[in-house]
Amino acid sequence: MLDLYGRGWQMLEGGLVTVQLCLTVLPFMIIIGLLGASAKLSPYRSLRIIGESYTVLIRGIPELLVILLIYFGGTIAVQNIAEMISGEETRVDIPAFWSGVAALALVQGAFASEVFRAAMQSIPIGQIEAATACGMTPSQIFIRIKLPQLWRFALPGLNNLFQVLIKDTALISVVGVEEIMRKAAIGAGTDKAPFTFYLVAMLMFLSFTTVSLIAFNYLEKRAARGIARA
Amino acid sequence: MFEDLIYVLGKYDTWLWRGFLLTIELLVISVTFGTLLAIPLAVARVSKKLWIQAVPFAFIYVFRGTPLIGQLFMMYYGVGQLISNIDGIQDHWSWAYLRNPYWYCLLTFVLNTSAYVAEIMRGGIQNVPSGELEAARACGMTPWTTYSRIIFPRMWQMIWPAYTNDVIFTLKATSLASTVTMMELTGAARKIVARTALPYEAFISAGVIYLIIVYTLTFGFKGIERYLRRNERRKDKQPGTAKAASA
Q: How far is A123 from chain B (nearest CA, A)?
């Protein structure tokens, strides 16, 4: 039915890279999101300004532009820093994979910080007051009270973000990372069968987003298991 | 560093300006036709008949579940190749249009936007209070009148913030047109980088223009939101008259 000219394995390899990309970005996205949310809710004005301007900037710039900026600009920046340290001309190449991860983490982290902020604000203030009254330090309150409940409030938003993330990894093909889209483009070019290859690529992406949707729905149910009975 | 920026802005300002205009053009056409197409999709999506629901559901599911860049390549390279294989098409007058990436971009953006907007509209339509629908039926409104007088005005009120987000999403999506050789804002920036090897200056200039567009849009759409919610404002200002009217 679908003749892939013996490139089926190549496409699967691309699929593996896409999965790797998603799973590598995910922890960074969560960490940046938590930091961003904490900055936005911080009692210090300067931190709030940093947090807010970060999301304001990222929200308004296309992901593709961020990816290109980090890929082309990041190399120059790292090279300059390396030259400053070593004092001689050095040639540095940032792997496209990692510049892509950095760009996506930066973009998704901004949206995640919005999700986490809303989630943090959903935690009843009485619980925080109770924890303070028990003599917990702010970091103890964060780990014992906020973090465990954060998941339940943040999961629907993270579900959405992960969908976006899966789709955004396709953009990294532009800087040459051999994920699904890039593999499909190679096949489309050399075997003169763009329709078939892109169709397969789309089906792969559709199955990834579907699996992620099912997984997150399960997690959402699980996270709410103590509440659902009410 | 600023000399480079001034150099880029001075020498390539026409490229950025033309890129800006093309970006706006793509955005306006995509959002307009995408929204128009989304209305029947959303109405069909909330239909009680399963077979009417199924078509928009599948359409929305596929377009929201796959990356836009893939849809674009599928259209431009995939469908484009199928068209170019038709016998004698290359001598036909329509060939000039059929090989132009502009039309493939627009078609993809319109379909993509319509899928996202239809999903938002579905949420809006389903959240119209059932009491209002019952009241409309009790007044003897036909389904058509109910939609135009009750459901749509209500829906727009509710979905406007999400719709604003979606317009911004579409704006950012137009940057993908640069991957099929279109010279919109991102495309112009990429070409400047290719010429000058000054990635910061070119990409950041483009980024600032995007930011200006986004926050102008956000501001304008906030104004429209106030207009859409004018009924609520009237109630806030004159609580006495609102109460008297309801009593």
A: 24
